[in-house]
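Escalated from tier 1: zinc ion holo job.
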Amino acid sequence: MAVTRRTSRDIRSESRLDVLHALLAAGEASRGDLAAETGLSNATVATVVSDLLEGGIVTEARLTSGRIGRPTTTLRLNGNRGRIVGVDVAETYVRATVFDSALDELFSAEVATDEHDRDPDSVIDGIVRALDTALEGAHATRDEVLGLGISLPGGMQRWAEVSLVVPNPTWHHVDRLRERIDLPIVVDNPLKAIATAELWFGEGRRHKSMITVNLGTGVGAGIVLEGTILRGAQNYAGEWGHSLLAIDGRRCRCGRNGCVEAYVGAAGIQQTLAAIAPEHRLASEHMQREFIEALAAALAPPAPDPAVTETIERTARYLGSAIADLVAIVNPEMITLTGWTAWALGDHLVPAVRRRVMREAPGDAAADLPIEVSTVRGNSVATGIATIALERFLGDVGLVTTRVPTAL
Ligand SMILES: [Zn+2]
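Tier 2 regenerated the structure:
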């Protein structure tokens, strides 16, 4: 795709998405509220709402009578239009979460998987089991599912010999999955999912260009530019965890030396602690999440562990420098941190990260740049991938020009 031109269809589609975003944020709103919130004209909002009502995407909720003038009806998303499922395929588990069509979570189920078993059929089994368990818990049937979003990590996409048809990623084995589950399926990666979750449920509602940094076992960045998720030619945009922090630095699990992930991924943080205090009891903790939780606990007053304090300071320097590079390239309005490391350690990391970014980002690019822990909680990968599936559904029924992969 070379040059894209905004057509009237795109603009109409964008207006519909703007109204949906505003309605999702407000829960319930009148047409006038939606016009005020989106900046669209009353006439445009009226047209958009009538399209969405016709499609069963929104419903009229109730009449409110103002002090003057005629009563107005409020609108809300129609949660009973159907069900949307988001599936987070991680290295050690598959989690399926069922949402109603207003994206309210109904039920979530997790199936443990063997991280050494790379057989596609095992992954497919895990997805099917998690899906059926979650649907049962939500008292829903497959017939009610409008869309199924599946998030596969980058590594697994490589393992799956993913064929990346520009700009749409295609998981080869999805045909086998479709044979078992006859549902509209969309596959994407976790970075795009967290960026979508931030766009619909977090700071993305207020910022057009922003970055969500994911900190866990893996590290990456979900990048939103001018309201659109940056994908790149082959959907690899945002693989910032594998950009260079230190020439000839630590070995990264991707095979390269000196990647950002080797310093601020959970295993990298543990390596930093081991370098500071080789005999520290936490240096040999085998479970990464437990390790990160234990670090947070060790920082609690009245006697914070000095080796852990030093580990956090160094990690904040690494993270701050790596984020300064992102700022130099993208110049975002806002940066949020998400993932279990951010939730556990974010409050300890953020002040020092901010100072570092201020010092190292070009010019005054970071002068007023907010860097905060994301307010989107829960499994933001499942939420984000479900949202992508909902967007895809809206595309299928002709309500939006879909910006999500359509090859599947
Ligand atoms: Zn790497």
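The pocket of zinc ion is lined by residues 242, 252, 254, 256, 259, 261 (CB under 6 Å).
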